[in-house]
Amino acid sequence: MLSRNYREKGIESVLFIISTLTVAILFLICLFLFRDGLLLFKETSLLNFLTGKFWYPTSVNEQFGLVPLFLGSLLVTFGAILFSVPLGIASAIYISEIAHPKVADFLKPFIEILAGIPSVVYGFFGLVVLVPLMQETLNLPTGQTALTGSIMLGIMALPTIVTISEDAISSVPSTLKQGSLALGATRWQTIYKVIIPAAISGISAAVMLGVGRAIGETMVVLMVTGNAAIIPSFPGGFLDPVRTMTATIALEMGEVPQGSDHFHSLFAVGSVLFIITLLVNLVADSIKKKYQFKLG
């Protein structure tokens, strides 16, 4: 009995150390990002950085405006969400509730394989296949646009959304479904009035993870969006070349002089990305707790 208590305390200690190490690593990442990013504001004001409309880091008069990069990231991510969320949730409902078990067992492995494909392969496919197709179909000067990036990011986010949403829907107790059907509800009424509300916590988590994948993706947007650091036009911004924050860091960090304002500006962009990701996770956690409380 005594040895068992020692083992349990040992396991608790190991888990505590691992949890503490995770928090410490996150803190060090924050320190690493914000320390170098804040040095930019010795020469440039925070307001100019956040509201600046031009990103000219190598010109004689350096300008480090975040607006074109932020809007490019926002536009591409928003397009990816519009594409992937309805399709992903609909696919999850079909696999979990409508498809024949043999069909579902056939589809699920292929969807999971899509999640394991390297992003550079997606980017290569988009560059070789989708970019020329968009250029010819829409009669554009170039097929490297925000719309192309949105479609590719949507395809990349689909496996995450489908897999997690399908798990959430499948975990809904069968008694809820049977009770709904016994009360006279049709199959579709049961799906959207009982099953979806009961699984909304997992579905919202799937959507947020898909959004996080889209926001943080680098290689695909680097290859198919055109990398033009300009503010997208309205209302046809999806057909303009754009540059995202992640692509900017990947393109410029390898050639920037260490310790320069340009160097610190890239860390500032990374800090903004970190804050956005943190906010997305907080929103996802808030939605999850809200619906768990309602269903509880």
TrEMBL record:
A Pfam entry, by short name: BPD_transp_1
Domain of life: Archaea
Any one cellular-component term (Gene Ontology): plasma membrane
GO annotation terms (biological process): phosphate ion transport
GO molecular function annotation: phosphate transmembrane transporter activity
Membrane-spanning ranges: 12-34, 64-89, 110-134, 146-169, 190-215, 263-284
PROSITE patterns xref list: ABC_TM1 (PS50928)
Family: Belongs to the binding-protein-dependent transport system permease family. CysTW subfamily.
Name the record gives this protein: Phosphate transport system permease protein
Organism whose genome encodes this protein: Methanosarcina flavescens
